[in-house]
Design a protein that fits this description.
eight-stranded mixed sheet, binds zinc ion, alpha+beta, globular, 24 helices, 1074 residues
Length: 1074
């Protein structure tokens, strides 16, 4: 099928284009490399054992090292689970007010109206029921491009049944459309809620005769051994500045009694890694947790940072991040105390000894202030960063699944908190006291166990729910309201003239085609596809048809859809139709002259087709939505013209244009449809308006601007693949509970919230984080424990309904100095970042910057005033745990979202990206990692793949050097003016910088330098779980300026240098002191 190549299109023919260039050049041909690198998770695979047939297997995200299926034959693993992926409908139980009434399908459509598509003759088979009086209804056309769409005989050779080994569907049939559409009950995680299928009966699990209530899966392996060989060793961090005694960054220096004995801080690094461990110190005497630098007051004048200038401060002596430390084992609790976690970005292996892993939940302060006054005095934020499905380290023990049988998990009868290691059993085990509300409950009879001499239940160590910070409970019928729905993947592709001509359509089709084999195999995986320009085109993929029918929905104002059963079809039934259709779409539309896009209407139409089941809607969009429902105007240009209107107009552009898409998004969320948008564009698309849809539905926006058909298809493919294969759950509802005295103030992230206590997540994956801010409603007792519990009710990709319960218990303190010792820099900063991003669209930018700076100053001031013993006014004294806070605050004020010189869409994307950003990625976003590339082959980095990072200051950039900078999303490769031609030859295969193509594609050449650079990039991709969009930046052109804009330690138009900023901070603190 050879067809003319549309301008700009990379490949109409799949055979000429065997797939996106592999991101992992070291293993050419392995297009799964990204996935292979991502921790070898067991994804989209059935659990090894049927529920009910024996000990419960680890959960699907159970870290059992298992490589990804290799490309084509894909799902060689027969489905043994109940279904590969099914999800129940919205939990009903207590119907929420305002639930939409059941919506029935539109009656039918005019059929067979030929439109001027390059298609074949109309089908003689009316695909829809009739809807006679509906002019403008969808019309059907067989899909047959001028190049001829291959016809399928009714007896097509697609295997009819489920694949070998597939089990019959274990669920009831889906309810009629509209049933079970009531909202999750307000008590969702508070009261029984239903969803999903019934789990195995109680008798099927082995359980102790004494305790019939709680069958428990015992861990299959003991604790993971201390990591050894496979751990990447990183080079030691840059030597800590002499003026900053205490632990280098990478390990919060903790000292003092609340943390137990010295050895209890962090378990020693295994195998004698030297690591940056500092001997912990006790007591407050010499204030070991304090960092100091001398900043003479006289040097506040501008220019202080200039090397050789009047500054007497050595820029090399100020706090800077080091490289990540050697891997350590982190025990969450020791000696009945919480251990403060290692930095979020460091390499650590967690042993859950009662508190949850910090990957799942992290508090901004690892001790809780007893009073609101103490908290406000500290100037710090109290918040939790929650990432309930975060990926764990491969060496960590899998989360254990506990099945309490029909009774369901033991819970407090008053606050509905779930049983956890901090509930106290009394009265010979007959009663237990809830650690959240303090209520005393009777222990259920079948859960009773005697207490030992230490006052603990004798079975504590055998029951994960009593000794682990994170467990998963099997949800009973009470947590389900309708049978799990099949997994639905719907692809919506822009085929407007622009999308076709830039190659975006072809890239999308190619990426989808390649990930089809990654979708869960089996009879319960459904797919659908539609294309859109100024109209919407569905495709009937039923095998019985001779050829796929194109079904056109021309009315983009009042949208309706073809019959769901025609356009959403079992993958096994339509795979061949689908593959050929994907091959043909770019050529079918190659003559298209339609410049409009009915994006909003297309999303709405796809939603109508999906609403009875829910599922994932993946939209590939190239141009601004210009017609139909939710049409937008090119207001960026208008905004530019109105620049005189000032800041007020400017930030209007960061708000959605109107409420249409938000209303639609809430409806999508109600019906459990999660939307991801892949923006492959070369122009303004009004990101602020469209991103509301993914944000409300638990989805994500991907941005490829300006789209390049040469360099972007590999990222598009890798992003789509990771989107589908990463650990994830559906139909989720989440709630955080706190001990008395503290309550949740606000949730921030990508979700839909209909009641105050719970958030609804049509989908949630391992990358998504939710910030939960906390407030006091009472005093806490000094020395007591305050607990937080996140309960996530969700459906696994195998159709199992689970409750992941994550509990963190921290001690309360009346001492300000304890709060500063226990401050968690990474989550403090993530919290500040998210609050700033959240406020940008509604507040004047200078105000947002000022708030960020003030919150940094307030914390440092509180420390200086109340905790530091040094009285010299000439010293800026920083708490060890927060010594990098000023640097990151400065970087934040210079970041894309807080600058006005960039595109409005870039800022909107940034705001949206931050909204669900995980803690480990928060700092790199504003303070990226930079490494030198030109000397990778000569420097000995002690075996580490990545050299130590370089400070983000232009004085560290040499004209002879090549540097790579990454922030978890983008990678910038900077080439200086006078780079040795031998180095250029090795890295780029050209002798001079001028000859390097601007549309750069990373390649590996046969030399050590190139190999090491590729290894470094791949290591970063692995660490970030992100395929970076690599741009080439050359000194002397705009791309070079882009690179230099990341040098946040320099003085720039958007702010002072790092040294100047420290001086400013110091002055402000002094002003406050006086
Ligand atoms: Zn309670």
């Amino acid at each position: 099928m050879v067809a003319p190549v549309p301008p700009g299109a990379p490949r109409p023919n799949n055979q000429q284009y065997p797939g996106p260039p592999n991101f992992y050049p070291g293993s050419q041909g392995n297009s799964n490399a990204l996935a292979d690198n991502m921790q070898n998770l067991s994804l989209n695979r059935p659990p090894p054992m049927m529920p009910g047939s024996g000990p419960r297997p680890p959960p699907p995200f159970g870290q059992a090292p298992q490589s990804f299926p290799q490309h084509s034959p894909a799902y060689g693993v027969p489905q043994r689970g109940p279904s590969p992926m099914s999800r129940p409908g919205p939990p009903a139980g207590l119907a929420r007010p305002g639930a939409p009434p059941p919506v029935s399908q539109p009656a039918g459509f005019l059929s067979n109206v030929p439109l001027n598509r390059p298609t074949g003759p109309p089908s003689s088979q009316p695909p829809f029921g009739s809807r006679p009086s509906m002019p403008g209804g969808p019309v059907a056309q067989p899909v047959a491009s001028s190049s001829g769409f291959p016809a399928f005989g009714p007896s097509g050779n697609v295997a009819a049944g489920p694949p070998p080994g597939a089990r019959p569907i274990a669920f009831g049939s889906p309810p009629p459309v509209g049933s079970g559409m009531s909202m999750p009950p307000s008590g969702m995680l508070g009261g029984p809620v239903s969803n999903g299928h019934q789990m195995a009966g109680s008798g099927e699990f082995p359980r102790g005769t004494q305790f019939p209530g709680g069958a428990v899966t015992t861990p299959q392996t003991p604790y993971a051994q201390p990591p050894s060989g496979p751990f990447p060793r990183t080079a030691p961090s840059m030597p800590p500045p002499a003026t900053f005694p205490g632990a280098p960054h990478g390990r919060p220096a903790v000292s003092g009694l609340p943390y137990g004995p010295p050895s209890a801080q962090v378990a020693p690094p295994p195998l004698g890694f030297p690591g940056p461990m500092q001997p912990p110190r006790y007591g407050m005497g010499p204030l070991p947790n304090q960092s100091m630098t001398n900043i003479p007051t006289a040097m506040g004048q501008p220019g202080a940072a200039a090397p050789g200038g009047p500054a007497r401060i050595d820029p090399n002596q100020i706090p800077r991040p080091g490289s990540s430390s050697s891997p350590t084992v982190f025990e969450t609790r020791q000696s009945n105390q919480a251990n403060p976690p290692p930095p979020a970005t460091s390499d650590y292996v967690v042993r859950d000894t009662g508190n949850c892993s910090p990957r799942y939940m992290r508090c901004t302060i690892n001790q809780i202030p007893c009073t609101v006054d103490l908290l406000s005095t500290s100037g710090m934020q109290l918040a939790l960063m929650v990432q309930p499905l975060a990926q764990s380290h491969p060496s960590e023990e899998p989360i254990q699944v506990v099945d309490f049988g029909e009774g369901g998990p033991v819970r407090c009868s008053r606050c509905k908190g779930y049983i956890n290691p901090f509930m106290k059993f009394i009265d010979q085990g007959r009663k237990f006291i809830c650690n959240f509300c303090g209520y005393t409950d009777e222990t259920p009879r079948d859960y009773h166990c005697n207490l030992g001499p230490d006052g603990r239940r004798r079975d504590v160590d055998e029951r994960p729910e009593l000794c682990r910070g994170t467990v998963e409970f099997v949800a009973t019928k009470e947590y389900m309201v309708r049978d799990p729905m099949p997994a639905v993947y719907f692809f919506l592709i822009d085929v407007s003239m622009n999308a076709i001509q830039t190659g975006a359509t072809a890239a999308a089709c190619n990426a989808i085609q390649q990930v089809l084999s990654d979708l869960p195999e089996g009879p319960r995986t459904f797919v659908g596809i539609a294309t859109f320009d100024s109209t919407i085109h569905f495709y009937n993929l039923k095998r019985a048809l001779q050829q796929p029918l194109m079904l056109i929905v021309p009315d983009v104002q009042d949208v309706y859809t073809p019959l769901e059963t025609d356009v959403i079809v079992q993958l096994s039934e339509c795979r061949q139709h689908l593959e050929l259709l994907l091959d043909s779409i770019p050529t079918m539309f190659q003559e298209s002259k339609t410049p409009e896009s009915a994006f909003g209407a297309a999303v709405k139409a796809a939603f109508l087709a999906m609403k009875s089941k829910g599922g994932k809607l993946m939209v590939f969009q190239s141009i601004l939505c210009s017609v139909g429902v939710g049409a937008l105007s090119s207001r960026e240009a208008e905004g530019r013209a109105n620049m005189s209107a000032g800041e007020k107009e400017a930030h209007k552009l960061l708000q959605p244009a109107d409420k249409t898409l938000k209303t639609m998004a809430i409806e999508l969320a109600e019906y459990q449809v999660c939307v991801d948008i892949f923006v492959t564009t070369q122009a303004y698309v009004d990101m602020a308006s469209i991103s509301v849809i993914p944000k409300t539905t638990g989805g994500q926006v991907y941005c490829y601007y300006p789209f390049s058909a040469l360099s972007d298809p590999p990222k598009l493919y890798n992003d789509l693949k990771w989107n589908i294969t990463r650990p994830q759950g559906f139909e989720a509802v989440m709630r955080v509970r706190c001990s008395q005295g503290i309550q949740v103030q606000e949730y921030l992230g990508n979700f839909c919230k209909r009641i105050p206590t719970d958030i609804d997540l049509p989908a949630i994956d391992c990358d998504k984080a939710v910030m939960v801010t906390l407030k006091h409603d009472d005093k806490l007792q000094d020395g007591a424990e305050c607990a937080f519990q996140c309960a996530l009710l969700y459906t696994t990709i195998f159709g199992e309904r689970r409750i992941r319960v994550t509990t963190l218990s921290l001690s309360c303190t009346n001492m300000l100095s304890n709060l500063f010792r226990a401050a968690d820099l990474d989550s403090q900063f993530a919290c500040m970042l998210k609050q700033a991003a959240n406020e940008i669209p509604s507040k004047a930018l200078p105000l947002v910057k000022e708030q960020a700076t003030n919150s940094c100053i307030n914390a440092l001031y509180a420390y200086r005033k109340f905790c530091a013993t040094v009285t010299s006014t000439g010293q800026l004294i920083l708490p060890e745990a927060l010594k990098l806070f000023p640097l990151y605050t400065l970087a934040l004020t210079k970041s894309v979202g807080l600058r006005t010189d960039g595109r409005v869409d870039d800022r909107s994307f940034w705001i949206n990206y931050v909204s669900s950003l995980s803690t480990p990625l928060a700092i790199p976003l504003v303070y990226p990692r930079m490494i030198s590339v030109h000397d990778l082959d000569v420097k000995d980095n002690e075996g580490a793949v990545l050299p130590p990072p370089i400070p983000l200051s232009s004085e560290h950039i040499s004209n002879e050097g090549v540097y790579f900078l990454e922030n978890g999303e983008d990678g910038l490769l900077y080439v200086g003016e006078s780079v040795d031609s031998d180095i250029l030859q090795k890295l780029f295969d050209v002798p001079s910088a001028a000859e390097i193509p601007n549309q750069y594609v990373l390649q590996q050449y046969d030399n050590q330098l190139s190999k090491k650079f590729n290894d470094a990039v791949n290591e970063i991709r692995r660490q970030r779980c992100s395929y970076l969009r690599i741009k080439l930046c050359k000194k002397g052109d705009p791309s070079g300026m882009l690179f230099l804009s990341y040098m946040v330690e320099d003085r720039t138009a958007s702010g002072p240098s790092y040294v100047e900023f420290l001086v400013q901070v110091h002055r402000q603190i002094q002003l406050k002191m006086n």
